[in-house]
Amino acid sequence: MKRPYVFAILISALGILGSTQPQAQSGGTIVSIQGTQFLINGVVTHRGTAAEGLLLNSRMVQAAFDDENSSTVGNWKYPDTGRWDPDRNTDEFIAALPSYRAKGMRAFTVNLQGGATGLYRGNDQPPITSAFRSDGMLKSAWTNRLDRVIRGADANGLVVIVGFFYFGQDHRLADEAAVIRAVDSATDWLVGSGYRNVLVEINNEADGAYGHQILLPKRVHELISRVKQRSGGALKVSASLRGGAIPPDAMITASDYVLLHGNGMTPSQIAGMVSQVRSLTSYKAKPKPIVFNEDGHFFDNMDAAVKAGASWGFYNQGQSNYVDGFQSPPVNWTINTDKKREFFDRVAHWTNTGPSDPPPPSTQSVTSFTLINSLTGQPVAGYNPLSNGATLNLATLPSRSLTLVANTSPSVVGSVRFGVDGNSNYRTENASPYSLAGEGGVDWLSPGSHTVTATPYSSANAGGTAGTARTVQFTIIDDADLPCAYTLSPTSSTLGAAGGAGNVNVSTGSTCAWKATSNANWLTITATQSATGSATVKYSATAHSGSSPRTGTLTIAGQTFTVTQTAASSSTQAVVSFTLINADTNQPIAGYDPLPDGAVLNLSTLPTRNLALRANTSPSIVGSVRFAVDGNSNYRIESDAPYAMSGDTNGNFNPWTLSPGAHTVTATPYSGAGGGGTPGTSLTRQFTIVDDGSVPPKPPSNVRIIK
After folding, report:
1. What is the pLDDT of residues 569-610, one digit of tens each?
2. 173 φ, ψ to 5°?
3. Checking DSSP bridges between strand 390-393 and strand 434-435, what pairing results, if any?
4. Does residue 546 or residue 233 have the better pLDDT?
5. How far apart (Å, rounded) are the C-alpha atoms in residues 434 and 9?
6. Rounded CA gap, 274 and 310, in Å?
7. Domains of the chain: which residue ranges?
8. Which of 414, 402, 421, 424 is nearest to 366 (CA)?
9. What dotted CATH number matches 574-690?
10. Fewest CB atoms within 10 A around its CB: which of 43, 182, 334, 597?
11. pLDDT at res. 5
12. CB neighbours (10 Å) of residue 398?
């Protein structure tokens, strides 16, 4: 087996690393459920093996992790740089995906609020590791990283179990309305991004120390059903409990698959949990896959789960030492310890995974080159990919120990032959990563102009058929007196109309000073307006209500960073009618469904004095409805159906407090919760309330009086 260079990571050839702008997914990996089995691209997983229909998985919840608390972020610093880098964490995770796939693993769990870091446990943990703002809206920096993770998984045939909440971070959400808004915004983002290799876990261990009641076992099924309905069934949804716990019937009924945790269980107890779930009436009514996605104890538990026909997931906490585990940052995502190797070897055993044959030669190509710091095994910022005609100044680069990696499509080919400066057979690499400098990065090029060509082959040692080659020209210099050079990564960004935030990484020499300024009043630099050496600029954008996109710029280190904000989407939502409700029975009152304009409501002759008014919308579910009553433009906002002017509790209408007299009610639908997003078409009705037994009520126009 080829030895990697220091902390060697396969650099993906798919253009995923460093990308920050989500695009519609190509759908290369499509997960679906058929009965109790999982299918990928319409084929039962691991067909013909003991793991047929299963998703053997690993808990890797920190793949998109970041910590915004300046007093705790230092706990996660990398040993080689002395600082935490969320993009490096995500890039290294994506780079390791091909090695997971090669061992037969087909799924992993990532969480929008991370997970236990090892240093902090329980609820209300001090690190700020949540993808949600306090109002429940998503942070763009998190979605940018998670987009790269999901698309990296898609390119490697892997399924992503996306968790929304973790009990150590749910306190970051202001209230239950914010929790619901977070569910909606995450659901809309997943569906809108076109991902088809995603499953959803509402929250990790719903019986944990959550502060919001809707996240606990008695009510979390409400959110499971909400995601299913809001996604139109596109997302398959579940939620988990702590080790050994069996979900209640309401959770099992609502879920598309059953999530279990095996922490603290023995192999016989693992098998017993599976049997207990299958014995439940709620499960028998609709059998579905059973998945353990967290078990931090014995690999014998994996054997017991697979033999019982249940998927199993590896949980390896680690020690924040960039060596052990898959959860305590900074995580070394490679298969570098005995425990990690034992897990993946056991996965390979159950899935009968062997060496993959190279794909047909006609599909092989070298797509780009990446400059690698051989001391860290990581890409050099600003040189991923390496641009044709680049100048590499050894005096200002972070290391003089360098290598060049050829990125291929697919990520594994038979071999890659390098040609350098007229030597067409400079080096041949038979295993990824395909490195020009070979093992250790000790055979690098001297200053001067160089031309490198890399050609993929279908067989080892440049045998078989050649694929599509790529050539890059660059110049190496060693001059500490050159003017400072600055590289921005990324160089542009696109934000939604709701606004958001983003980061720009500035790479330069340690003595180079620079500033960052905003050229648009809707763009604000929130961190690092000036610095010396490499640093990260953070910025935010306000919401945009215009019908056309807008573009603004930041000037960072003398270079232009462009931010494009999408237009507010036109809304097809509308309030189409009102219905007068008997608040005693929660049913419409005959003759007032719908309520006509100009109606007279006589309290003496109506079946009850406890009345309510419901706004009916098209479609039936919208983001929210704002009521305006008698000049009060913000009388009430309802974010859940039924949309009641006086509110309701799970469909039990509260009676209104309107007194006799003339009244005007306007209801306006919005695309987002809490009156957020884009307003739709409103509806206004005028009516009069009287309380006089001698006055016959004015019949509505759609009621015919027969004499």
Report:
1. 556 789 999 999 999 999 999 999 999 888 889 999 999 999
2. -95, 135
3. unpaired
4. 233
5. 11
6. 7
7. 31-351, 364-477, 487-565, 574-690
8. 414
9. 2.60.40
10. 43
11. 34
12. 18
- Pairing mode, if any, of strands 550-556 and 559-565? antiparallel
Mean pLDDT calculated for residue range 197-206: 96
Two tokens, residue 495: 């934000």
Architecture of domain 31-351: Alpha-Beta Barrel (3.20)
Separation of alpha carbons 164 and 59, rounded Å:
14
Q: How far apart are CA 262 and CA 294, in angstroms?
A: 6
Tell me, yes or no, if the two domains 487-565 and 574-690 fold the same way.
yes
Task: Say how far residue 125 (Cα) sits from the centre of its chain.
Answer: 21
Q: pLDDT tens digit string along 138-171?
A: 999 999 999 999 999 999 999 999 999 999 999 9
Question: Which amino acid appears at position 523 of this protein?
Answer: L
pLDDT tens string 65-89: 999 999 999 999 999 899 999 999 9
For residue 478, give Cα distances in angstroms to 70, 416, 472.
37, 29, 20
Q: How far apart are CA 135 and CA 624, in angstroms?
A: 15
How confident is the model over 468-477, as a mean pLDDT? Answer: 91
Confidence bin at 482 (pLDDT 50/70/90): low
Compute the mean pLDDT over every residue in the chain, rounded to the nearest whole number. 86
138's tokens: 């998503």
pTM of the predicted model, to two decimals?
0.52
Structural tokens at position 612: 């309510």
3-state secondary structure of 434: strand
The residue assigned the tokens 């279990």 is 260
> Would you identify the CATH topology of the domain 364-477?
Immunoglobulin-like (2.60.40)
Separation between Cα atoms, residue 464 and residue 523, nearest integer Å: 54
